[in-house]
UniProtKB/TrEMBL annotation:
This is Putative myb domain, plant, Homeodomain-like protein. CDD domains: SANT (cd00167). Coiled coil: none annotated. Its main location: nucleus. One of its GO terms (molecular function) is DNA binding. InterPro entries: Homeodomain-like_sf, Myb_dom, Myb_dom_plants, SANT/Myb, SANT_dom. It comes from Helianthus annuus (Common sunflower). It comes from the Eukaryota. It is found in: Nucleus. Pfam families: Myb_DNA-binding. Residues 195-213 have a biased composition (Low complexity). Residues 113-166 form the SANT domain. Residues 106-116 have a biased composition (Basic and acidic residues).
Length: 246
DNA sequence: TCTTCAATGACGGGCCCGAC
DNA sequence: GTCGGGCCCGTCATTGAAGA
């Protein structure tokens, strides 16, 4: 199977297949052994071998791009087809402000872009990227791990994440009474790197999937850490991704 | 000079809690 | 039970600094 590593991405995969593939990657099982079978089940007409080969090809392509060995064909729009389908829909809903700004045509009325909350899935990818690429390499994290977010967004998210961690740390040093007094909601930032195992090997030879543990058996729903037992809304941020804001 | 990152503040919106 | 004010959170925009 290793000889398929340098194979270009299989062109027989339709956009629909690719969407299913990405979804399967995001929600795939934790254990590597049964992973490909699970993913193949989610993509009609594809065998586990095909899924694995496709995954490795995609991974290889990403690494090539990352290494600067591949010229990017105007990826602003192209990536959207394959990786940010859902996000694009939201962008359209708010008038695709990004593309307008990107063309250099200044907007007459500067309208604040509608905030799209980070999903748990995105946050977990972010954490994995943080572990793999380290603090500061937001570009790589945004390109490889959280393709639905720009480097700026990743950096901003990281800032709030670290602030949150620092705040939690501070609270832990206070006594129980003070802790209870402070109202703190559950937040997506309560998911820390300790909850996200590193599974990405940046070496091209590795076939370790970058998102193999995302969600994993946990899947959707209740996040593991609930650091504020005093909060009446345990597991509240379960809805952060889905509930949206309005 | 250009690109990238970090820091900061503004803003929108949800949630909590007390008053009624 | 409901309503409203204040608090808190998350995202976006802007600006300056640093490095290539």
């Amino acid at each position: 199977m290793d000889n398929q590593k340098n194979k270009p991405v299989d062109s027989t995969w339709t956009n629909h297949d690719r969407s299913l593939f990405l979804h399967a990657v995001a929600n795939g099982p934790d254990d590597i052994a049964g992973r490909w079978e699970e993913m193949a089940n989610a993509i009609p007409g594809k065998t586990p071998e095909e899924v694995k080969a496709y995954y490795e090809a995609v991974e290889h392509d990403l690494l090539e791009i990352e290494a600067g060995r591949v010229e990017l064909p105007n990826y602003n729009d192209d990536i959207g087809d394959e990786f940010v389908v859902t996000v694009k829909k939201e962008d359209e809903a708010v008038g695709n402000l990004d593309s307008e700004m990107g063309n250099g045509t200044k907007r007459v009325e500067k309208e604040r872009k509608k905030a799209t909350p980070w999903t748990e899935e995105e946050h977990r990818r972010f954490l994995q990227g943080l572990k793999v690429y380290g603090k500061g390499d937001w570009r790589s994290i945004s390109r490889i791990m959280v393709v639905t977010r720009t480097a700026t967004q990743v950096a901003s998210h990281a800032q709030k994440y670290f602030l949150r961690q620092a705040s939690l740390k501070e609270d832990n040093n206070k006594d129980e009474n003070k802790k209870k007094k402070k109202r703190r909601r559950c937040s997506i930032h309560d998911i820390t790197t300790a909850d996200v195992p590193v599974v990405v090997d940046t070496q091209p030879s590795s076939s370790t999937p970058p998102t193999s543990s995302l969600n994993g058996s946990q899947g959707r729903g209740v996040p593991t850490p609930t650091p504020t037992p005093s909060s009446p809304h345990e597991g509240q941020f379960n809805g952060i991704g889905s509930q949206g804001r309005g």
